[in-house]
Amino acid sequence: MAAIENIGANQKNNNLNSDKTQQKNFHTDEVVRLDGVTFGYNGAPVLEDISLSVKAGDFLALIGPNGGAKSTLMKLMVGLLWPRIGEVRLFGMDVRHFYEWNRIGYVSQNAVRVNTGFPATVEEVVASGFYSGFGKLFDSARKREAVKRALDLTGIQALSRRLVGELSGGQLQKVFLAKALVKKPEALFLDEPTTGIDAASSREFYALLKELNLREGITVVVVTHDIGAAFDRAKKIGCVHGGKVYIHDNINEVTQEHIAEVLGFRIPELSAVFSKNREPETGMQQSCRPQIPT
Ligand SMILES: Nc1ncnc2c1ncn2[C@@H]1O[C@H](COP(=O)(O)OP(=O)(O)OP(=O)(O)O)[C@@H](O)[C@H]1O
Ligand SMILES: [Mg+2]
């Protein structure tokens, strides 16, 4: 995991106590769960009273306007931020006490903005995914095998000896995905992994995520502005706007009107995705609504 930011800043205000959380209704197939989470940086909250649950095997795409708090939500999910009010649980454990970081892979929104001028090969960058948490327990033979597997899964074996500074944006995104996969996580959290890459590479990247989700059983949570890819590949859509998160468990219930409500504009290209995957729209069915975890 990357360095933990802001941890403990709001600890005193947290309204949890461990006895109470022990009694909460936790499903063992839950990867991450938020209950009544409110979070703000300095003044007003940017997320307010959020409750949601991501189950093992889910492929959840989080969409919303710039500044809507998608990255904040993802940082709360992976323990980089702690909520002022409410509770976040990873694999059933309060995120403040969670330690099995090898079970999740996270790629931040800024990952590809790192300086790629240093002379590191793809293989070395992927292997650097071990340098935190439980990675140190892997012996070098197992590390080599795991790096090879991550390169295979992401289809970049042929690039393994190349310098990262020589790669295209789309290739570099796959390198960071491979780095996140190297510890064989059960869940991947990716914040805008296809920003700045062309439409074809973006489609290929989401197809790869879908394969990891279906074939490897890896839970995927992805923040994206690529709405077409999100609807084509994800199983669930989460709309993050106005301090709230609205989860659509059934992707087929989402209409052009929902998108317009969240983003402020319609996306004509979505009609092609919608007509491929579902019956014709019958108009506005249900407005975006918060998910109430069971
Ligand atoms: N470290 C920070 N300190 C203070 N305010 C912050 C910080 N990070 C984010 N914010 C504010 O919180 C709000 C939500 O930001 P966030 O980055 O979560 O949005 P986002 O939905 O990911 O946006 P984008 O689509 O542009 O990436 C914004 O108003 C932003 O200015
Ligand atoms: Mg963001």
- Please report the number of helical segments: 9
Bound molecules: adenosine-5'-triphosphate, magnesium ion
- What is the overall silhouette? globular
The radius of gyration over CA amounts to 19 Å
Give the percentage of residues in beta strands.
15-25%
Overall mean pLDDT score? 81
- Tally the beta strands: 10
Spatial strand order of the main sheet: 6-7-8-3-9-10
Summarize the structure in words:
The chain has 294 residues and is an alpha/beta fold. The chain has a domain at 29-111 and 186-277: 3-Layer(aba) Sandwich (Rossmann fold). The protein contains 9 helices and 10 strands. It has helices spanning 18-22, 70-77, 122-127, 140-153, 169-181, 199-215, 227-233, 256-263, 270-277; strands spanning 30-39, 47-55, 59-63, 85-90, 93-94, 104-107, 187-191, 219-223, 236-241, 244-248. The strands form 2 sheets. Strands 6-7-8-3-9-10 form a 6-stranded mixed β-sheet, sandwiched between helices. Strands 2-1-4-5 form a 4-stranded antiparallel β-sheet, covered by helices on one side. Helix 6 (199-215) links the parallel strand 7 (187-191) and strand 8 (219-223). Helix 4 crosses helix 5 and helix 7 (227-233) packs parallel to helix 9. The chain is globular, with a radius of gyration of 19 Å. Residues 1-24 and 280-286 have low confidence and may be disordered. Magnesium ion binds at residues 70-71, 109, 191.
